[in-house]
Amino acid sequence: MRDYIVKFWQGLFTILIGMKVTFKHLFVPAVTIQYPSVKPQLPERERNRLYVNMDDCIGCDQCSRACPVSCIEIETVKSIPGEVLGTTSNGKKKALWVTKFNIDFAKCCYCQLCVFPCPTECIYMTDVYEFSEFSRESLVYDFVTLLPEEREQKKKNFEELQAKKEAEKIAAAKKAAEEKAAAQANKPEEPKSDNKEENKQ
Amino acid sequence: MKTAEEIFNKLKEKFGSSIIELKTDKPLEPFILVNRLEVDKICLFLRDERDLLFDSLMNLSGVDDANGEKIKDETGLETINGGTLSVYYHLESTNLRHKLTLKTSTEREKPEVVTVTEIWKGANWHEREAYDMYGVVFLNHPDLRRILMPYDWEFGYPLRKDYKNPEFYQGMKVPY
Amino acid sequence: MALKTEEMVLNMGPQHPSTHGVLRLELQLDGEIIIDVVPHIGYLHRCFEKHCEAMTYPQVIPYTDRMDYLASMYNEFGYAVAMERLLKIEVPERVEYIRVIMGELQRIASHLVALGTYGADIGAFTPFLFCFRDRERILHLFEITCGARLLYNYIWIGGLSHDLHPDFIRLTKEFIKDFRPNLKELNDLLSFNQIFIERTANVGVLPLETAINYGVSGPNLRGSGFKWDLRKDDPYSVYNKFDYDIPIGTGEKGKVGDCWDRYFVRVKEMEESLKIVEQAIDTIPDGDVTSAIPKRIKPPEGQIYTRVENPRGELGYFIISDGSLNPARVKVRAPSFVTMQVFSELCKGWMVADVVAILGSVDIVLGEIDR
Amino acid sequence: MMYDWLFSLTGNEILAMFIVSLLPLFAFILPFALIAVLAERKVSAHMQDRLGPMRVGYHGILQTVADIIKLLQKEDLVATATDKTLFNFAPLLVFMGSYAAFAAIPFSGFFIGSKIDLGIIFIVGVTGLVVAGILMAGWASNNKYSLLGAMRAAAQIISYEIPTLLIILTIVVLTGTLSLYDLSEIQTAYFWNWLIFGGPFFGLQKLLLIPLMILSCLIIYTSTLAEVNRTPFDIPEAESELVSGYHTEYSGMKFAMFFLAEYANMFAVSAIVAILFFGGYQSPFGYLGNSLGWSWLVPVEQFFWFTAKGLFFVFVQMWLRWTLPRFRVDQLMAFCWKYLIPFSFVILLIVGLITLM
Predict the structure, then answer these.
(1) Which DSSP symbol is given to C99?
(2) Is D65 part of a structural domain of the chain?
């Protein structure tokens, strides 16, 4: 019988305490913000969308190797000796044309593993988080600064260079073969000519 | 508080042949190689022995040692046959505060290990997961079904090194 | 002739407001009383272990975050401790202190989620929002330090990705000062409320022997009255430098090991974690956090099993390396996976409303169960 | 009163009766529902340190209008396996049950539906219809969760009607009348004549009655709370277990009907508590109209006081909803049969003795 009354009284008492707490909170100012009109102020180390500063990118492929979900695709083309590609901000001379640099933000897991290995710190994370799209394909960002024709142009240049090099190599090889052949051909003549000289003396 | 050697010697004179050897060459923890069909008797002894009292099974994990000979077929996918699948038991005694690692290995084609669910009921789902992922059949296990993969997944055992993803699973393309 | 009652099978299906994720419970009901519970898991299986075999060692860390997504800082902590023992790396003192601070803050945040959703399951919606308001402060602390709110990739093998933010210390002190009265308020509102006690005391009692036999760990084991905490019983990192005690279930409101005990152990644990964070904040040494991070991680051939005290229990990492850049096998012993086995034994004989209460008190996360 | 005035105005019986029966609906319940839905969301928001609806209209004023428009244009889903007739009729029955109660509630001296002298028993009887409606809804939607919810709702409402009736009996024993109008008239002139402070009696009798009346007010408030399925007794639509009980399958206008019925019931219940214990439409400190001599002002003041008390009790219901967790079904029954009913029997006995004194 005793705990029957104690339970009733305790129930009533704890309910009133609970109500006191919620009533007190009627006058506490709200902690929520009205999102679209009031944007949250994000800290500067925020990790949202990646940005690649293509001027500094030397196409070294470190970031795509470090990415756990392999969402960065890079293709580079060697530059022709004559061309000048400019230097990165910290003075490193660039040698590769980057013809393809895609980051697929549908796959990216925003883990920042690609930012640390970059030698020229050209890839870093901005605090832009509102970039939703209607189709997955449009989430694949292309960062290359060359126009499509220029990319083809670079590839063609490089192929020509390759072709020229092959041609030269073949030519050099042919020449070397001819000389060898020629060398054997005139080797038999030389001994004759030596005899004549000896005879003349 | 007993070290692995003492426990090994204790087991050796109790079970003799079924305790194969104590491996301490690989770094960190030594483990005891045990015959796969005697596991439950050994574990029951380990649990009930007065000065061992291994009363909780921390972890039971299947491992594909991938030590069979690899055959590369034309598309570059390799299938391993021969070699062993092994099951590691990490035991622990909560009141004597010591730990032990057991290992049993079975051949790859017909992997069979005796279940320890009667000794530690916690092993039930761990064994089902080892079966689901590696195909190690645990003899007289209460209900040996797949646990993480869909119940009707008949394209082999995913965590094996030579596992190939099926093209379609019930009409759905698997690799997207 | 006994009245023939037909059992009703009720599916508390994968999409259900109170199953804490995608878990399907098949309940055999006799009226409202439960005869048997068959949990079906696997809906959130993302082949974590298969991924690990294709990743290099540092790349596994973002994957460990996604296992127990409510306490991902502690998953990384466990993986880092395991790898450092395998590679025998000595980590600078400052890194250990920061890891302890971050781990304990993550424990508070994870317990706040557990307690908040537990209140919402039982029906009290306001404590849920109070808990999430306080948790927001912790997430802000994490955000200013490493940039992310939930999945951090902050603790690396051998160090940290960033050092502490300049005003991290000040904000943490403010948080601790504000959080204590809030904790007391939560107690008034929920813990000692007679209806809450009525719903949770003596419900779903977990006896100690079955708990140990099943390998249950963490707050659920401590709720059954067993003083077992890996931070003290299997020490790692610098936990031995702080003094804190381990709260256990005392059967204050009902039998030892009932839902209320498990709930109240988590509330007291939050107070202990506050103490640890306070002590760690005051005595944090200086130093460089990225000095001990190895450039290329190629561990010697071997295997290691390490366990840490995750907010949900004993999180174990069993790593086998075959000397190459990628781990040969990473097996994770998830505390919720083990707790889920005990669940069907806990629920027998109780009512449908109690299944929700017991599931809330056991505090499982499906990301960890399905891996 | 109002019926006679309208009859004298229009001269046609049916028209007057028609207007009188529709007036509470359009003049009071719909506006009240508009305000109550918004108030519930605002009160719960501020209790939880957030702002609640802020976008529709200034500070979310038009939120309920937006809700109604949404519900109107929502597709009215009817699952194939449901029992069509019951499924469609259930929300009507539930709303009928709670709306009929307003016929006998005296909003003010002048503004009363019908001054039947069995007022309170009529209300309790009519709210019994709600149980039938809920059972119909639960059974017709052919879904395990709603069936469970409906079973629980039926058991809960029926068993909580007993303490309500017992407390009403004590009031009737005390005041001798069943009609709500006379009950309000008895508690006139200043608040210490209200029944909660012992009613219009004198000396020792009043002093003895005060604690009993406070306790019985508590009991009737909790039991009517349970009849309306409000927390801590909202088990039939317990979100965390039964998804949302008997109105899981409903959508669109039918769901709005359930919603409206719930709020109408909420006000009806708090009106009953206000009338029984807090002097219905009597003002606590005299009427401005009398002192100023404008006799037409008195009914308006009475209407104001009546709605003020009703709204206060509705606020307390909302306040309870966002503070307390939910009972379990068997605890709910135990609470009713082991606590409320014995207490109300004891009170009935003691009050009976006091009135004999």
Answers:
(1) H
(2) no
Give the nearest chain C residue to D327 (CA atoms): C195
Q: Is residue D47 part of a domain?
A: no
Query: Is D16 within a domain?
Result: no
Domain that holds residue A68: 50-147
**B with C: 3 or more CB pairs under 8 Å?**
yes
Give the best residue of C46, C59, C75, C199 to mutate against chain A (max A CB count within 10 A): C59
User: Are residues C62 and A18, on separate chains, in Cβ contact within 8 Å?
Assistant: no
For residue C33, is pLDDT > 90? Answer: no
Q: Report pLDDT for D280.
A: 81
Residues 6+ apart with CB under 8 A from D302: D107, D108, D109, D110, D281, D282, D283, D287
- Choose the weakest-confidence range: A46-50, A184-188, D270-274: A184-188
- Partners of B28 in beta bridges: C303
Residues B15, B111 contacting (CB under 8 angstroms): no
* Lookup result for tokens 């505060």: B97
| List of chains touching A (3+ CB pairs within 8 A) | C, D
Q: Distance from CA of residue D212 to its chain's centroid?
A: 23
Overall domain count for chain D: 1
Residue D178 has a pLDDT of 87
> How many B-C residue pairs are in contact by the CB < 8 A criterion?
90
pLDDT at A189 over 60: no
User: Is the CB of residue C91 less than 8 Å from the CB of residue C159?
Assistant: yes
Residue A93, domain member (yes or no): yes
pLDDT score of A187: 67
Q: How buried is residue B131: exposed, middle or buried, by Cβ count under 10 Å (0-12/13-18/19+)?
A: buried
D219 found inside a domain: yes
pLDDT in tens, D221-256: 999 998 888 878 877 666 555 566 777 788 888 888
Checking if the pLDDT of A188 tops 70, the result is: no
Q: Which of C59, C165, C185 is nearest residue A68 as measured by Cβ atoms?
A: C59
Mean pLDDT, range D171-193, rounded to an integer:
84
Q: Which structural domains are found in chain B, ordered by start?
A: 4-173 (3.30.460.80)
The 10s digit of each residue's pLDDT in A95-114 is 888 888 999 998 899 988 99
CB-based contact C223:C261 (threshold 8 Å):
yes
C193–D contact, CB cutoff 8 A: yes
Residue A98 lies in a domain: yes
Arithmetic mean of pLDDT over chain A: 83
CATH architecture label of C48-370: Orthogonal Bundle (1.10)
Judge contact between C156 and C146, C-beta under 8 A.
no
Q: What is the mean pLDDT of residues A131-138?
A: 90
Of C143, C161, C194, the CB nearest to A112: C161
Of D196 and C329, the one with more pLDDT: C329
Which of C65, C144, C190 faces A43 most closely, judged by CB atoms? C144
Structural domain including D264 reads 77-356
Q: Which amino acid, C79?
A: Y
Task: Give A106 to chain C, closest Cα distance, Å.
Answer: 16
Query: Does residue A41 form part of some domain?
Result: no
Q: What percent of chain B has pLDDT over 70?
A: 97
> Which of B26, B31, B54, B59 would best serve as a mutation to test chain C binding (most C beta carbons within 10 A)?
B59
Chain A residues with CB inside 8 Å of C119's CB?
none
Higher pLDDT: C339 or D247? It is C339
Number of domains in chain A: 1
